[in-house]
Amino acid sequence: MNYQSQSTPQPVPSSVLHNSVDVRAQHTRAAARQAAGFANRSLKSVYRQVRNKLAWQGPAAPQS
Asked: DSSP letter at 61?
């Protein structure tokens, strides 16, 4: 008996294989989580720099 290969001659693009609504929604959620994490890290860095700058200057002298 002769068996033919089940593979296609050329690879199928992933957009055909993974084009369902569920997969797109999953990628969207993952991208949103990644963007939120980036924003969170960026804000933490900015707050840390501001806090260090204020700590370096020391307390304000009282106005009399």
From this structure: P
Residue in this structure with the two tokens 């008996």, named with its chain if needed: 1
Tens of pLDDT, residue by residue over 11-23, are 766 666 666 888 8
| DSSP state, residue 11 | P
| Three-point CA angle 26, 18, 21, nearest 5° | 50
Cα 50 to Cα 4, 37, 41, distances in angstroms: 67, 20, 14
- Residue 24's nearest CA partner among 33, 13, 15 is 15
Distance CA 41, CA 39 (A): 6
